[in-house]
Amino acid sequence: MNPARWSLRTRIFLFFALIALGAAVGIVGALVYVFRAADLASAAPVTLAGLIAVGVTFGLTAWVWLKFDENVAQPLVAIAADVRAAVHARAARKPPSVEKGRYLGLLAPAIAEFTQALDEAREEVDAAVAAATAEAERERRNLEIVLRDLRQGVVICTLAHKVTLYNRRALEILGASGEIGLDRPLTEVLSGRVLAHTLERLQDRFRTGRHRIHRDGLTTTIVGATAKENARIVGRMSLMLDADGAHPTGYVLSFENVTNELAAGVWRDRLLQDGIRDMRERVAALALAGDLLARGGDAPAAQDVALARDLLAREPAELGDRLDRLEEAASDLVSSAWPMATTHSPTLFQLIKVRRSEGRDLAFESAGEPAWLRCDSASITALVEHLVNRIAVHAGTRAFRLSAVAENGRVRLLASWEGEAPSPATVEDWLDERLEDGAGAVTGHDVLARHRTDLWCVPDPETPGRARLELPLAAARDEDLPIAKAPTPVPERAEFYDFGLLSGLAPTPLDERPLRGLTFVVFDTETTGLEPARDALCSIAGVRVVNNRVISGEIFDVLVDPGRPIPAVASRVHGITDAMVAGAEPPSVVVARFRAFLDDGVLVAHNAAFDLSFLRREEDAAGIAFDAPVLDTVLLGAHLFGTSESLTLDTLAERFGVTIPPEARHTALGDARATAQVLLGMIPLLEADGVRTLRDAIAASDKQARLRRRMAAQA
After folding, report:
1. Alpha-helix residue ranges (DSSP H) falling in 133-258
2. CB-based contacts of 583: which residues, under 8 Å, 6+ apart?
3. pLDDT tens digits for 80-133?
4. Residue 229 above 70 pLDDT?
5. Are 195 and 160 in contact, with CB atoms under 8 Å apart?
6. Is 353:364 a contact under the CB 8 Å cutoff?
7. pTM, to two decimals
8. Distance between CA atoms of 226 and 218, rounded to whole angstroms?
9. Helix locations, 95-162, DSSP H
10. Is the pLDDT at 694 greater than 70, yes or no?
11. Extended beta strands in 9-141, E state
């Protein structure tokens, strides 16, 4: 054992033990000298005197040590803990240990004066800081008002799609698809494929430096759907860079709900196309009737026959021409209703290469000159990927060559392979299948209709033994092309925020992350009793702590139907009655919702083993597992203040200056909020004690848990 890590009380005990041992050695030595010098006939009197003297010395030393430990050592340890709490965690002005230090003379009052002076100095500093930042605070409030009143949803995310900001409109649009919150993945509520696809486009533009001359800089259009496909969204994604402009740190997503607009366009398109097919059938019938009239039956007058023949020869052609124009107009309506963006063919090919589906390892190579085209790159990428996967199985190949050919205002996308081309009927069947492009339930035919085009698979006329897929798309208009002159800086979005969540560029294992950088879900439960084996949940509440602050707007507070009567003695504690939980969801459903709220956070509770036992009872029924790391503020408090101190939630709250309203005490949400504030107070003390990461905190907790088990076994 390292002596440098011995506690103060251990050192004092060893000091008194050394005094007692030294005194005993001195007494024994003196008696031996007297016995030999006096030449006594018997050693019995001397031995008896020595034993009495040693016993009295040991007893007196032990009594003095106990009194010293009780009145000096323990108060010193408590005062030291309170001073550290005052320094690192802004504890109360009058530490609880001051009352214990009545035998320490002026030390205890001096500590009280010190903590009061420290608190007053902090108040002065806080006032100065508040005055210096008043203007910044006003600007922040103005920005919050703007974000609140925007009719567009705004979300800011890290490159891992973790949310760092969202406004009220984003919550309205995305909230129906699931939980949205800080440090939670946006992919829970928006299609992950679309987000990854659009982010890859911007990152590729940044890597190649094209953003410096691109008309849109580091911004592009995004079209997608909510995760549950309840709403379609259209917006813009902008890549955010660090202060030096050297690395991407995240992105800003602004969007609006266009579900109704797109639905109206699809309805209009189907209506027009149904009318076209019906009219074509009628024209065919008219042509057939005219043909019969011209060939048989009682012969009508010559001039009528001539007129009928003229009409029958002319009208079908005119109607067919008009129908073609009507079909073109319908196609224009559909294509104009769907947002398109200017895309560089190498970017499109790169998106196809990085996208992997159905577990196949396909190899792609690019050839030919690049070209600019106008399309919905997400759906085109999904369509090409879908087809090459089908072709890979059909032709028994995995290698494809991608190229683009610009001609006559169109750009032909070509994907060639070694082998035979599938039949037109097979291609039609593939186009009838649903794509996974994240933009809703669309097929290949839908994508082609959006782009007013068609595709086909034919033998490659340039290379015998090969076949190719041809997909003509519209070429980009000159006004849509990026600026092709000398590079000029593109103004970037002004910086309004300094988000700590955006700074974590390199992924770090969870147990190596600093405590201040973790996302905690601090929770509490209320139950029908204190026996997990026979009692049940009647309430669960949790609050999120992100980047070392409690997110007051993101809470979980749900009543639970325990499936049994709530005893009166339990209702007197937490205030929940049978009438309040009537009609509430059962424990398994609520526990599953709470697991989704937890996401990949760290669980924290006061006396966590008790609350967690009720959650784990529902794991099988809910189909989930609580496998997240767990911290207990009782064990962390024992590490900081020792096992001899009171570690109740009320005591720890008083120590850290946390006020629990009487009406909130012994409610799940009130206790969870208080525990969260206690945790934030503990973190600076833990850091000062060398407990800086989650791994350190778990190790310190495990040590205290083992100590408590040994003490319980010895009791």
Report:
1. 134-149, 168-174, 192-207
2. 561
3. 777 777 666 655 545 555 566 666 666 667 767 777 777 777 777 777 777 776
4. no
5. no
6. yes
7. 0.61
8. 24
9. 107-132, 134-149
10. yes
11. none
